[in-house]
Amino acid sequence: MDTTRLIIVAVGGQGNLLASKILGEAALLCNVPVSMSEIHGMAQRGGVVESALVFGDARSSIISDGEADVLVGFEPLETLRARKKCNPGTVVITNLAPVPPFTVAIGRGTYPDVEMIQNQIRTGISRLIAYDAVSLATEAGNVMAVNTVLLGSLIQTGILPLSSECVKQAIRTRVKKQFVESNLNAFEKGFLAAQRLT
Amino acid sequence: MHRLLTDKSGQKMLLLGNEAIARGAVEAGVGVSTTYPGTPSSEITLNFFQISRETDLYFEYSTNEKVALEVAAATANSGVRSMCVMKHVGMNVAADPLMTLAYVGVKGGLVIVTADDPAMFSSQNEQDNRYYGKFSGLPVLEPSSVQEAKDMTAYAFELSEMLQEPVILRTTTRLNHATGVVELGKINAPVVQGDFVRDPMNYVTVPAVSKKLHARLLTRLEKAKQISERCVWNFTQGSGAWGIVCNGVSYNYVSDAVSDLGIEAKVKVFRIGLSHPLPEATIKQFLKKCEKVLVVEEGEPLMEETIKAFAQEEKLPLTIAGKGENLFSRLYEYDPALVRKTIATFFDVAYEPAAPVDLSGIPELPQRPPNLCAGCSHRATFHAIKKAAEGMDIICPNDIGCYTLGFLPPLSMGDFLICMGSSIGTACGFSRVTGKKVIAVIGDSTFFHSGMAGLVNAVFNNHNFTLVILDNETTAMTGHQPNPGVDMKNLNMNGYGRVSIENIVRAIGVPHVSVIRPYHVRKSVETIKAALDFQGVSVIISREMCHLYARSIKKPGRGAFYVSEKCRNHRTCINELGCPAFSVTDGRVVIDPVMCTGCSVCAQICPEHAILPLKK
Questions:
Q1: Which pLDDT tens digit goes with each residue over B472-483?
Q2: How far is B337 from chain A (nearest CA, A)?
Q3: Fewer CB atoms inside 10 A, N or C side of chain B?
Q4: Closest CA of chain A from B519, distance in Å
C-alpha cells in the first residue's frame, strides 16, 4: 500500500492530539496501517505541538523536511513555520484565525500579516485550502472544535486512505459524549468548506 | 474498566508506545510498579496508577528513582513481578542501588524502564542509557515499534526470571510517544503477594558476599549472551553484501530507506533488539558475509565500537562505520531523510535528494516559547522575589519543573541548573565563594526528590542563602502526579499519609522559616525581604495550588479581571509579569477573560489600580 504522510501543527490546547487519535482510530477501523508520533513536551504551556501520521506500509513514524503529502495547520503562523515539511506536491489546509504568541501579545514581536502568510504558504506547494476554522467551529456549536472542522476538510480532499464514515465513527468513540454532536457538525462544516474552496 | 485491562487476546487496539509498555506488563502479570514521573516515561505509570485503582496491582509514585528501584528490588526479591519506570536522567539517581542490585539479582521478574530522550524534547541532556546495561552487566531490550514495545515488555519479565537479574527496557521518546496498532495478548493474573526468604550470604552485600556475587553476575551475563545469540529480537533481513546494523527506532528509518533507495537485493540488515550483551558469534558470522557495514544507532557509538572490536578479533579487513564526517552524528535524533542520505553516501548509491523548499520569502517569524500558565502562582512568587531583591546583585539557581520557565523574560529568574535538586546544593557553593545574595528556588516534588539532602548540607555547613520552595501541591510539569506533600483526599483516595514541607524544614533546623501565599503580593514581598536580610539559611515556602490541578479536582475558581478605563498604559502588568492572559490590542492592554484565572496579582501591582474584577 502506498504511503501517505500527514503533519499536523497546532498550538498547545487546540486539540491536535485528539485529532491525531481520531485519525489513528479511523485508520484502525478502516484496516489501514498507521504509525503516529507526537511531541507532548510543554504542550500545555503555549508551545507548538506537532504530530506526524504515516498511513500505509512505511515503518517510520516521523516525517522529514520536504516529505509531507499533507500539512494541516490549526494556526496560520505555525502552518507557515512548518512549511519546510512541504514539497511541490503537498496540499496544505490551514485555519486562518491567529493565536498570537505571547511575545506578540505583549508587543515584543509582530504577528505577520495573514495575507502574507497565505501567499507564502501557497508558494511552491500544490494546493492551499485556507479559511477561518474558528468561525465554522462556533457555527457548529463548539468553539473548541477547530480540530474536527479541519479534519472535515482533510477527509474531503481524499488524500488520506480513510473514509468519512470511519472518521465519524472514530469521533463518536474518541470524543466525550456531550461533545460528539457538535464535533460531527464541525466535521461536516469543514468538509463542505473544502468542497466550496475546490 | 480501564481499556488496558481488556481481556480479548487477538483484538487490535491503537496504543501509545507508553500504553503498550503498560499493557505488556499487565499481560505479564505485573504485581508491583514504582516510579518517579518524568517525560517521556510518564504515561506508562499514569496507566498503572489508574489500573491500580481497579485491580490488585500495587503502584506507587516514589519520592525519587533511587527509592522507586529499592522498593521494586524488595518486591521482586519476594517473588512478585515488578516494574520500575523512569526517564533517562532518573537512572542516574537510581544508579547506586542499580549497580549492586545487579549483583544481588532478583527472584520474580524485575523490569527497569528507562525512557531516553535523544534531541532533548523535554530533558536537560541526551545521555544514552544503553551504557547502564554495559555498566551494570544487565540485559538491555530495545523495541522498534509500538507492538514490540508491548511484546518485549512481557518477554522482559521472562528473561529476568530466566537470568534471575533485572532487565533494562530502553526506549526513546519517538517510541514512547509513537502511536500504533497493537494486537493484544493474553492477560496473566497478577501475583501481588510473595515471600522473602532470608539468605544473608546472598543478599547482604558486605565485601565477602559481593566478591562471590560479582562472579555470579558474570556467569549470568555469559548465559545472557547465549540467549542473545538465538533471541528472536535479534534478526537478519535480506542477503546482500552490504551490511547495516541498527537498533530501536533507527530500524524503522533503515527499513524505509532501503526500500526507498531500491537496494533491497544488495543489503543485509541486522536488527538488534536485545542489545546487551550483543550476540557476538552471530554478529561475527554476519560480518564475514559483508563487504562493508554501516551501524545506524542514535546517540553514542556503543554498538559500533563493539562491532569493530569483533571484526578485529576475527581479523576481518572490512570497513565498519557509523559516526563520522558525512556519516552519522552523536547529536540529536535521526529521521528518515537523514538515514536515507547517509546510507546512500556510505554505499555510494545514486540518489537524488529532494530539493529543499525555497523558504527565502519567509520573514523572520515570531517565536512561540512555552510560558508559565495564566494565573500560575510561580509567576507571582518570582515577581515577589524580584521586588524583594530589588537593588541586590543576586544569583538564582533554579530547579526542574514548570518553574524552570521562570528563567525566561520578563521574570528572568534562573541562573544555573544541572539536575533535580541541584538548586540547593549549588546555592551552597555559590554563596560560599561569590559574596552575592543567592536565592534558590525548588518545587515541592523536587524538594522531596533530592532537595532535602542539599538543605541538610546547608544547615550543617552554615551556608548563607535563601531558598524558596514553590509548593503548588502537585507535580505539575509531568501531569499532576502526587508527591508526598499532596493531599490525596483531593483525589478521593484514602490510605495515604501526607508529609509537611514546613515541618521538614523546621526539623532540619533551618533557623529562619516563613510561609507566604504568593497571590498576596505586598505581604509576600515583605516576608521575602525579611528572609533575605537573614544571615544563614532562610527558607520561604510559597504555597498556592497549581490552578490547572485545582481546576481538575474541581476546586472553586476565582472570577476574571479586566482593564478598566483608569488604565494609563504604564504596562507594569505586562512588563513585569508576562501573564499570557494579557495582550495589547490597538495600543491598549486587554485581559482575555477566558484565560484569566482571577489571581489578581496584576491588579495589585497596577500603579493606577485600573485592573478590576469583572462583574458576574
A1: 999 999 989 999
A2: 6
A3: C
A4: 20
